[in-house]
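One thing: mind reviewing this one?
=====
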Amino acid sequence: MTLWRKIERDVHDTLGEGALWCERDRAFYWVDILAPALNRLTLATGAIERWDMPAPLGWVAPRASGGFLGGFRDGVAAITLDPLTIGERSDPEPHLPGNRMNDGKADRHGAIWCGTMDMAEEEVSGSFYRLSPQGEWQVVDTGYTVTNGPAFSPCGNWLYHTDSGRRTIYRFALDKTGARDRQEFIRFSEDDGYPDGMTTDAEGFLWVAHWDGGRISRFAPDGTRDRSIELPARRITNIAFAGENLERMFVTSAATGLPESEFDGALYEVDAGVTGLPSGIYQG
């Protein structure tokens, strides 16, 4: 039985990422980091829209005040759509012009968790940050090659974050003020590819995209692999649950560095058989 379907559209993503369900808009959003562009799929109609962006965009998160906060190459900025407007950047790394934002999400307390990385993927210059609702940057961890995730446990006690270059997923103890006590949680083998974007389901299991692994995998709260779902794209990048009951799973992929195909860079809907958790909303 096929557990996935490819969403038909006119363009494929160079580097699809930043999967997000926005309950306010009843729409699934994702970015094409390198295009750069922001995509929207309205579930009720199946309509897909795409906005060109002025700089590489790693993620968006809904804001309580309206619109979105977006993680650009040179910091975060407010984004509104219809018409498109982009505010001034807040950059935690003005001293590292070779870095860019990669992946990020809002938590249940209204803060943003996001990571940076070297655009050339050569320097170990990435860091993991928390942006408070008051707009204050906090360095959570440093020394990353490619930051990815993050994801949050349903109980709110655990934060998962990845250094894809090291094939390692970390787990942090989490509360409303920050994260601490980093532990190695899951390490991918060479056959697994690299852990990329992640999400958690309502049962507390962690879903991880396999870059250069062509699949997504579900891991139990103790880190053991529960199951995997194969996909026809090689570079799977991110995962999010969507829909009124969070029963629909969407998966992004990348075409960068690969021969042209109908599958790489496509968006997929996957029958995961479980439901997800509501997306966080940035309160700043």
